[in-house]
């Protein structure tokens, strides 16, 4: 105790300064409420739609009964035709979907035996369904019709018994399956007894009930595939194995064949039954309006409710709400339908016998004779009483005056319903993964409209459950995630964000805990240009940015482990960490509190090529090329064959992911999990990105916040739904190793830029180019709207212009590259169709013509305000941008940006006037049906509704006012600047002047051959020492002759130095002269109570980096002649592109002006309707090109709006599933370790103790010790 008291703080110096760490993994009430509302609505919809589907179908059956009156007896074929439509509706949808897939995806042909077996079962099932519903059920009572549909579980229960008996282990659902089969047989017996004993001499009744039993028995073969696959696993039969493989790989062709067969069989049965029943098809021409209305409404409700019930049922399963939103509502649907039909019959009967006109006691038979049988069709009044009497008519046949008959009917119905329940009781223990794929959850692709709830329940795959403890989910494969961040000149606060995010993820998935087996991770930070020279010597030290990073890690480490929590004692030292010298500079390995590592790679630009793309190439080859493949190479060297190794390599590639990050990215663990879900569930997804939120303050950031929001709300979601995302931003994207290591991806990405277009497409837009390579290889890129990340946006006008100067030309180049290769990409990539590429073509044309469009908008406002003619207004609108265009070719970049700022302010005032002029035009012309007015109203309405669907981002809509006034700056001035300066291939952001005295020393004179040999020998000896020495030897780098000082980052052609192909490899030896940075960093770390121990690279890894540097990452030689040539080529390319770009705009302006001058000849006349919506019989004249362009643009936005809604729904499903599969323990008081340092608006990172992720199938677990995790509070529940 006395020793401890010696190391104390000063009592007057106990105040602390700790990072404010926001951790929003704990759920809050709004998220819980959203989940509750979503699941409640889903359950109600599944139940209600199932009831509507079943009730409307049984009404069609009732209308087809020969004794009912709502549809005349001669017109019964129309009801039978609607029954047939209900049977084949799902087959038609499946046929269309399969044909689409067959046209756009590779489809294999099945074996003849497989096709024959499938078609045989489809023939049996479709024939049974048609016979049951068309020939048999119209002659039965309503109660029997409700009950007989439950009997379609008979074969499923039998298959369950067979599959479970063939399994090696005892299982828990064998007894329920046996009882289900016996109960259904009992229901059949009671049903036959009821009808046959009623009138044994009536052969027609015997035929009807026989067809009903036989038809339902045949229909029950519908779900044979799932049980065959289950039996094949137990039997090991080669036939079953090949059959199941064919069923999986040849689905499209088999679905086309089976759908066509079902439609034909149903049509044949329907076509044959009508004439056999002495009915005529020609009566369809004489159907009354009343009958048409009844039939159309009934069949419409049946078709729509069946499709929606199937969709919402699937959504309930994916949201892990099987019990309350799927199983229970479907169980109750049959009972509700039965009550829905029987209760009105009883009520009408009671009203009749208690009515004033009834003087004697009358039984149900007398009621049928007096009221039901002797009525006529009524085309006036409500149709409901007639339908009730029609339902009563079906019950009159049985009489139901004896308790025995009622008992048999009740027993039959109860037995069949209980049989269905027991046959599907395994669903209560169903294992469902997060965002479960439909084909893995259901046997058949679509539903059965005639028996919707039975088809949904029986269509779910059956899994044998062993006795004893409840079976857990199948173990999922562990994936390895490498977090790879690139840094350069990030500020202290920016680096703090990403380090906190990495420590959060470490706490979320502790490495040492065996419960967390879904994924492991390792963080890598690649720090570009991390060293600076000391004075003019060769000694180097870490620059201030790298030192800041080490200090930040120390501070965050203490905060997460609560080492700052003591009051008087000094801080406890952080566990020892490792520091290494490497061929590219240095490495710092930090082990986070929960066991995961952060590996910081300090890059020396004198040793290895710098800039972001080359850092990415470095980690791709290190993590995927070296770490992933070396272990398999060692196995191959030990004698294993490539045939044996290849499956393991493929598996590791599929289950290895790289999370690309920027040095200022802030994210939550939930965001990473949501991206992992996309790649884990869909093997052909090569990359997935999240919703990027720009952070910062000021008008420039406000503009970007709205711009980012709109682009993600509409553009990103449209790309995801219509095709696939074209660009996954490098600040927060998850890539699959198999995609990156595919042919022509990683290798091509490491290509040195040798042509002018390469510097723009490859280096200025490296993220988009990487996605372009993935798309060309057939990989899909997805967007997950609930996965949020935050990154700093340029706060300065100049920085924003320089950033967009990089993005604009590179985006244009990559999209043009994709469009030029449309045929090849559409054949290889199933997510990219020619129609989707046409959509992208329209988007790029809209972008190209945006300067001319803005000029036309301004000209229109000048015309309205100053009453100028069209030519004068257009000339005035074009003069300022034309002058600015000319100045950009002559002035320096900074001067261009200064002028751009002045013009932006002027145009902002003008845009305010333009907005008011549009409103004034509407008032003056007293109509909203002008193109400009309609366009503004439609766009504004879409943006408002879209914002309402993103409630946590609704505040961004207020920044839309700033966005509107900045439209000329963004789509006219900025485009001119970016196009004219596309030859400037410097980075343009985060650039700083070198520290005084840190200039690189002059290059050494050329070495002689003897000196080279000496250096090589020294390198060999030093490398051998690295393996044996316990003490670190300092190193120095001897430059290869001819390697000159690197250019500053802000030069026009900053990185175009090309190494001489004949140049010998760079020589690197270890010496003490220039590696004082190790001691400096150790000293700095000791001050922060973190001791760094020196460690050494393995010889194999060291050799790898030497070879990697020599082949791909050698610093580029400063070839001045080559540099001048590239600069000249870039200017030539700039001149050609800008000429074509602005020529298109000029032609657009001239064409529009010509049409405006000749408006009497070419104008489109739109009827003028005043604001009270009165037709004035006058017309507004609009020039056709502008009108069609506005119409096309508006159509694009409307398409994006509907795709956004579609995407929101599926994001909500994924989000709710995430809430139900990420439980955490509730916080206890002793877990709130450093609450005194917590602000009111922040949450301590240790507020919750995140525990095991579960993949439980039930979302309705009631364990009080757990809560559900949701994505960060900044992540909207269904955030796009």
UniProtKB/TrEMBL annotation:
Residues 1230-1280 are annotated as: Disordered. Keywords: Cell membrane, Coiled coil, Glycoprotein, Glycosyltransferase, Membrane, Transferase, Transmembrane, Transmembrane helix. SUPFAM superfamilies: Nucleotide-diphospho-sugar transferases (SSF53448). It catalyses: [(1->4)-N-acetyl-beta-D-glucosaminyl](n) + UDP-N-acetyl-alpha-D-glucosamine = [(1->4)-N-acetyl-beta-D-glucosaminyl](n+1) + UDP + H(+). Its main location: membrane. InterPro entries: Chitin_synth (IPR004835), Nucleotide-diphossugar_trans (IPR029044). It holds the Pfam family Chitin_synth_2. Belongs to the chitin synthase family. Class IV subfamily. This is chitin synthase. The lineage of its organism: Eukaryota, Metazoa, Chordata, Craniata, Vertebrata. The gene is LOC114866079.
